[in-house]
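ARCHIVE CARD
SHELF: 3
SLOT: left
DATA:
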Amino acid sequence: MNTSSDSNPSSSLSYSIYSSYVEHSRIDMQGEEANLYVARALRLVIENVLAQLSTTLVVAISTRHLGTAHWFEYMMNSLMDSWRMVAVQLIRIRPDLVANPVVGRKRVSLLMVDSYQGLLDTNITANNADFDDPDYYFIFLQARDHLIPKQLQLILDHCLAHFWLHCNVMIQTAQVEVLVYTYYPYTANACQAAHPIPVNTFDGRQWKVAQMFPDKLSQMHGCPLTVLTWPQPPFVELHWDPQRNRSRGSGFEIQLVEQLARRMNFSLELVNMALLRPDAYRLAEGSSEGPIERLLQRSVNISMGYFRSTARRNQLLTTPMSYYSANLVAVLQLERYRIGSLALLVFPFQLSVWMLLLLALLIHLGIHLPCGRRRGNGVGGGGLQVVALLLGAALARLPRPWRHRFIAAHWLWASIPLRISYQSLLFHLIRLQLYSTPSFSLDQLLAEGFQGICTANTQRLLLEMPQVARDPDSFQSLDTPSDWDVLNVLTRNRNRKIFAVANQDVTISFLHSSAHPNAFHVVKQPVNVEYTGMYMPKHSFLYEKLDDDIRRLDASGFIHAWRRASFATVHRMEQQVRLTSRRYINHAKLSGIYVVMAGLYLLAGLVFAGELLLERRVRN
């Protein structure tokens, strides 16, 4: 009796609490069977789709109607009772809160909303805008049937405007039909449009299509993509086509983007841009009409043309895999290290050999001087005989004492191998055009007082290096975007103590095309490494597809072949000029021989004049 009397008040209290909860939460807005039907559909999405994409899941409930929010919470409770596969971050977003609900990266999101305004309240657009890797949005829109078309279109337009490529919207109709809609940004009927397209249906047991997020960029139906570029051979070469009244491109990067266009079936619209000096750019990356600004404004889809990757650009824009990398090298004129004519005369022998030779010369002079005095020839006669013997000349008068003849003969025969080795080494070294050891690093060049020249874009990259940042005046930027022009300036300034910093492949191409390739020295230690790629607006939905295709082309070797062929074309264009220039004898290479011969003739003239003066003095 006591038990029965105690249980009745408890049952009444439980029923009263449940009735109050149902009244305020409105979870009875539809039958429990329909609720379980929707819950099974969501569970399969989470287990078979979202859980395969990430080990964590962000579930956000954002509604402007309080009763719908309670119904979403009831649905989540039903799901969690039977599902424990992945970690869940459940976010309840109240429209009366002004602060940002939750900040941070949300890669896979399940959003439960009752309207487009509820989606905006999540503020998830700002949270994911700075990331390049793809994100996935599965949006459950719960609204009245007559409100669904408008709200669905607003949500899909939002997905397109913010580059949400993997964006699905699930709805439930009054007939308890669970449908999934998405959009294709490029279709046969429209380009850059977000028309709702049904992609899946739940039949009560499973989804009819296993692939919940279809590939939307494998077929772009010839829709145009705007490519902003500029002439930068051999990467990009632009030619005006008068028949089509438009620019036509060629070069390594143009070949790459044309191959991507064939694979994805889109058309190209090339926009030729005149590059300005970077110090005049508003962002230090592009003018108001520069490549960075145009991409930030999303007025173009892709920008390329030997576009270097930097931390600033990667922060502002999106870039797929870098398809080109090369060293920045320092190039200088070997003329600065050429051994002079006087230094070349001393170069064949080391200092110890010259010291021994000088000592032997003094000894023989000491032996012949007393002999010359006794014969009346004086100091000059004995000294000239010793020098004449060293140079291989015969004596006009032999010394009378036999020991002096023996010493003279010894001195003559001993000097023969010295003369032979010296003369052969001298002419061999003149033929080799000897240079002193040039610098092998950027630090050595700066320590020796060299001035660097480069393009303004390269200078901005070099200023991030500590040794250059300490002395920014050690580099001077030229008003040109081409490393080829920088190397031409280096060629015209042979007497200045300067060096150029340029791309390694461009430098090799320039040296192959130069009439005097051996007149330059490339410093062995690279200055820096630069990476080049194409850039797109931040969070572009083209990133995932282009990155995947570029990686496939690179793994297949196509990119390397196109790059090698493009630089080989530049070599062939300049080959005729190089061959014509080398047909003629370069007298500059023979300057060492001319100086040596002139010095020898001058010395012979002085010896001859001295002999005449001595002969006249003897006669008098």
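SLOT: right
DATA:
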Amino acid sequence: MMLSDLCRFYLIIQICLSYGLDELIPQMRINLLLRIARHMLFWMHNKHKDKSLGERLRLSLQELGPVWIKFGQMLSTRRDIFSSLIIEQLSLLQDRVAPFDGILARQQIESSMGGSLEQWFEDFDQNALASASIAQVHTARLKENGQEIVIKVIRPDILPIIKADISLMYFLADWILKIREDGRLLRPHEVVREYEKTLLDELNLLHEASNMIKLRHNFTNSSMLYVPEIYSKFCYEKVLVTERIYGIPVSNLSALHAQNTNMKLLAERGVQIFFTQVFRDSFFHADMHPGNIFVSLEHPENPQYISIDCGIMGILSKDDKRYLAENFVAFFNRDYRKVAELHVASRWVPGNTKIEDFEFAIRRVCEPIFAKPLADISFGNVLYDLFNTARCFNMEVQPQLVMLQKTLLYIEGLGRQIYPQLDLWTTAKPFLEKWLKDHSGLSDMLLILKEKIPLWVEKIPELPELLYYNLQQNNSLKKNFDMIFTRLDQQRDRQVISCYLFGVSTTLLIIGITLLTSKVGVWPFWVMTIGCLIWIAGWCYGRQDNT
């Protein structure tokens, strides 16, 4: 662990203690040493006793920086784990993080664009409209047509903070591997590496611009989801300019009810949008906390989502999609044996896993989920039980699906808030069954053929040449194999002769030493000399190159 990591680790503990978060350590005998160490090594006391625990937790995460703020954003959707008072405070991390100075924002925009703001924009508001962990947003108008826009600006000097926390996370990953026997199954390095990549991608707003353009294209003319227009000519690494949208934050339930929004349809569309992005497009919004999701003010009876902040997007391969779809459908059908077999087939668990035992373990965890409304299901407990089950069967964490798992947590949290009676399974099952049917039948085969035929037509004239080349390669390969086998035979013969010479030389040396002790003149020296010469000959013969 580097000195900088130790300093950052100490700072993290210091901030947590200054906000009194040691109250979260249970008063149990098993934690006695931890509490004693806390008083011996750190002399920081709670400096914010006048604030609630939820507010202190929010302020500490905010002070720790973007990595921790994003962690708080995810926790803000877990109403089944935390009290409403804590959730209300953590929800402020979604778009109301303390902003940086608007003058600095203006300077950064002008530096990126290479000129004064007034050349392109008017009515620039120096006060931030919203502020999040990595960037903040200011409003303005395009000078050329008066279009209302928002300008997103990356926080200055944020990269060193992120790198320090990522370095510390790698240290913690090493620590997990050392202290836990099953640490390798968690694949902590891969998980941290994936998280590092997503954070660093977020620092380049050109990535977000391309993501938004693609997502907007995928949902063109969709009644379910609207994505704001991007003004590409004004986008840079640290500056992003988009159309300004007006909507109700998805977490503002009172406003949604006030305009008579169809809450059941809204909740169902949230699930449909997620599965459409994952299975139709293989490209999904992976940061769907309530601060990034709005509901259009128009047509409340036919509600439409508005999605912003596409800095983190997930991509799945065709194999991942099929595996997930088959697993979901098997879960919905309560076919736990199929789930167990899919896990083994995908090599997520060892091939020698006993299917019957794995099936029983999955059934025990998942069966209580069904026949209950969403409000009665504790997904926190389910995930905990599934994790323990996975450990028992040596299941490895799949880093490529970490973002998908996080997004599922967001979807479940949003669904719980919007329409607690939502039947998640009934909503998702028809979609997945249709996807599997479309991608397993004749139509899918014909589509693949349609895609491949132009390539095959292009390659047909090259077939004779490719055939001749392959025959030549096969002949050459056969000659190489014959040469290798010949050399191996020669080497084996040389080794046999060399070992024989070593045996003779060793025998002569032993005889020479024996004669030397008998004092029979110079004969022992001659015998030992001949033995040494034979040993050298054997060594040289064995070392000869066979080329």
